[in-house]
Design a protein that fits this description.
globular, D-Maltodextrin-Binding Protein, domain 2, alpha/beta, 11 strands, 13 helices, five-stranded mixed beta sheet, six-stranded mixed beta sheet, single chain
Length: about 325
């Protein structure tokens, strides 16, 4: 029996309506974002700079977004566990990561078995903070009083001195590998699962030396660590008598940044909302003060284009250094 023209038209209108509704549903979900709690994934143990930054930012960002933000630690494998979790999450803005630069721009050059490519599978959301310098610190029991003493001591040490780091490929290790190359010294690498455990090991005398993050300035001021030099371009105002390594080895420079990333494919509307509100948070005077006090970091409130350019440049730079120093995942 032939279908009536009315039935034929009605069936096509119904199909078109359903298709149009299917298109509108994701748009409606984006317009309502966020409609449930958001997870901040931190790839290192509590106490490190990413954990501190995540908590400072989430305190102010949560009211602006109208939803709770839960900070979750997913440490291990140099940050790869956290990156894998985030990259494989739904691109809906409910799972984001607060991480160091090394995890995104260094790990891909070191780990042959990575299941994701951070440069393709993660979406940069916003830069957050920058450390203008790493701190070369030693346990106070090490018989060196300044940077020159340390270099001479390291040259003569047999067996070689051990140095702690926050993990293979971390900025802690990269800073020491660069110093070893420039100064002609040999040290044994002892990786830990994050900068905080590494600093605890140096304070406790398990390992005598490391390049610590600026978050450890508190331990330096308390006399638990002795600072010998910094990796930045200029001396730090909080340690004006401490030289830069560049004063001894021109061209030596290591800085590090932290950023917020989500899975690739985040819709533009959600990406824009997260960026806009996060940049509002970073512009607050009390947030700048809290970040500086708690971690000795500076707020890094770059535009999306500026942040993307830094990521690309650092990815290329550290790729060359990893190859030069023959650094491998341990």
């Amino acid at each position: 029996m032939k279908k009536s023209p009315f039935n034929f038209l009605a069936s096509h209108l119904f199909a078109a309506t359903m298709a149009f509704t299917g298109l509108l549903m994701p748009l409606a979900a984006q317009a309502q974002y966020p409609a449930k709690p958001i997870r901040f994934i931190v790839p290192i143990p509590p106490g490190g700079a990413p954990d501190i930054i995540a908590r400072v930012v989430s305190d102010k960002l949560s009211p602006l977004l109208g939803q709770p933000i839960v900070v979750e630690t997913r440490a291990g494998s140099g940050g790869n566990i956290a990156m894998d979790l985030v990259a494989r999450s739904a691109p809906d803005g409910y799972t984001v990561m607060i991480c160091f630069d090394a995890m995104v721009v260094i790990n891909p050059h070191m780990y042959s078995n990575m299941t994701i490519d951070p440069m393709k599978d993660l979406a940069p959301i916003q830069s957050l903070a920058v450390a203008r310098s790493m701190l070369l610190v030693v346990n106070p029991s090490l018989p060196v009083k300044d940077f020159r003493d340390f270099i001479e001591y390291a040259k003569k040490a047999s067996p070689p001195l051990a140095f702690a780091s926050g993990g293979s490929g971390s900025q802690h290790q990269m800073s020491m590998e660069l110093l070893k190359s420039r100064a002609g010294i040999n040290l044994l690498h002892v990786p830990y699962k994050g900068g905080a455990p590494a600093a605890t090991a140096v304070i406790g005398g398990e390992v005598p030396v490391m390049f610590a993050g600026s978050v450890n300035a508190t331990q330096v001021r308390a006399g638990k660590l002795r600072i010998l030099a910094v990796t930045g371009e200029q001396r730090l105002p909080i340690f004006p008598d401490t030289p830069t390594i560049g004063e001894f080895y021109p061209g030596y420079l290591i800085t590090t940044w932290l950023g917020m990333f989500g899975p690739a494919g985040l819709p533009d509307a959600i990406l824009a909302r997260l960026r806009t509100e996060t940049r509002r948070v970073l512009a607050l005077a009390d947030v700048k003060e809290r970040i500086a006090t708690a971690s000795s970091l500076d707020v890094y409130n770059a535009t999306p284009d500026e942040f993307a350019g830094v990521i690309r440049a650092d990815h290329e730079k550290y790729g060359r250094l990893v190859k030069q120093f023959g650094i491998k995942a341990e």
